[in-house]
């Protein structure tokens, strides 16, 4: 672009700022002192005048003539060939004038000797000057090649050290201003920073990029700062370079404008850039953005060699940026998979209030297999689960999803915590065996890093808000923290079973009573395994963080993560903080019954009276029918003692307990069968029904929907 063209089309110039160049320019000779040429010419005049003065004093002057021979020799060491020739000819002309015209009485032999010596000195000086200049040019080219090789080496070692597109762009600009440009910027498409492939079509109008990095002097122009949007206007040469993917060598005169708007008149003049390179960042056939390099008038403008060098450096950086983009895309997919397998939010439950957090590991550790869950159980109970699959990546996330689904299924049949972990351990073992067998059938000699290495930890707790009893078991997982009202933070003493998939010792259940308002904290080891500290120190930090009097559970989660984890963790973190509640006598009612079938009528009367007190008289008929069937089955097929319990919360829960461990089964009675229709009737009238085993028997329960209230339990179960 010519200077006149740049003045007429200022919007097509590249906006940037200048910095003093610390390298060597390939074209042109090194600058010589301008005063050397004038000084040597003046020396000729002074030496000639001195010779005339000595001759006037009748002194010998041949010694002075010898010094005149040194003048072209000195010129050959300092000046160019043209200037050396001028100085030598001027020196020779002065000698001819002095010895051939003014001093004719010297003798012909002396005159010829002096003039011949000066002529020979001129010839030798010209030859020496040419040799010197050729040597300097060769040395200059070698120095430039060395500087460029050093720049390429610096770019190879410093650019692309991380899988972060923004940081890679910053490294490119930092390398460029070391000795190549005065100012450098890198603008990337927003989609590149998000991990997606940009779409650039001809004729799409103005192109908006995001300034990702800037380095160099800030005294040239006021433009977009890192993080701000940069508009490349339609038709601008830099925009055309994005469309074609070809680098451009630009020359700027006057006040240089920005890529997105008019120039800043407060930064024009000698510091304004006058030469620029616009090099698109292209990798694997995709244009990711553009890099802009400029030089100030104090530096010689860019040339074609500089353009080739810039292309090489930018091409290497573009591959690193594309690698970072693809890594970001894969990480986003993994995170989306991980989060889709986790509960979207902590569900509301009458047994407790909870807040949850999931914090992925640092950007270079990969997505892990940490998970948490809050599972509604029968009898208004709730289960809290936290687990961790060893390893990172999509395989860990997929394994986590399978384990979470298995825990949901096992929890739905109301297994005790130790039995649930035993079945979950079998799931992990069978999954690992299937992977091993699959690799064997494929004939793979290398089964891969994930084969035979499926190991996970898990903590399972169930809480009953009626009895305030909590049962817990853990498989190689850190113990939960508990904060009772008015007490300090402590860790529950739950027997530590082996991790899932390892086998060995059986799992044990610990039971304890928790008063209402007790705060529980369940977490994965990524919370306490802080780099530079052992696990005991991590547990102490967590204990201090939980001891803070923060009433909001959401705020408490944020406080714990900010205090214990800090800026980042090398592993995923799953955190659940819950506050227990209690269902008192206003929500529950319980009666002991005999093993006499006559007590079935008494049970109906008790239920009807309690429903009237709860303003649920409209549910009396349905509830009495369900209670009659459940109590009759318990008395007829079970064993004493028999207990009837009602729980009113989101639904009306009817429970009948007896001392038998035999679980009833739903079956379809034939036309002329006298029995076998009890559970079928219960299943038709109830929203849910089921059986859970106890240490002293079993409990059959049924949930009935309250009038004009849709039970939330159905949604919670479907979400699992």
How would you sum up this structure, described in words?
The protein is of the alpha+beta class and 720 residues long. It is built from 18 helices and 22 strands. It has helices spanning 3-8, 34-56, 62-68, 70-78, 81-102, 108-158, 165-179, 190-193, 237-244, 304-340, 394-412, 417-442, 535-546, 553-565, 599-613, 620-637, 678-685, 712-719, and strands spanning 183-188, 207-216, 229-232, 248-251, 275-283, 286-295, 352-359, 368-376, 382-392, 456-464, 469-475, 481-483, 489-491, 496-497, 510-513, 519-523, 573-580, 588-593, 642-648, 651-658, 688-694, 697-705. Strands 3-2-1-6-5-4 form a six-stranded antiparallel sheet, sandwiched between helices. Strands 8, 9, 10, 11, 14 and 15 form a six-stranded mixed sheet that branches. Strands 7-17-16-12-13 form a five-stranded antiparallel sheet, covered by helices on one side. Strand 8 (368-376) and strand 9 form a beta hairpin. Helix 2 packs antiparallel against helix 4, helix 6 (108-158) packs parallel to helix 10 and helix 11 packs across helix 12 (417-442). The longest helix has 51 residues, at 108-158. The protein is rod-shaped and about 165 Å long. The model is unreliable at 1-33, 255-270, 444-452 and 710-720 (pLDDT under 50).
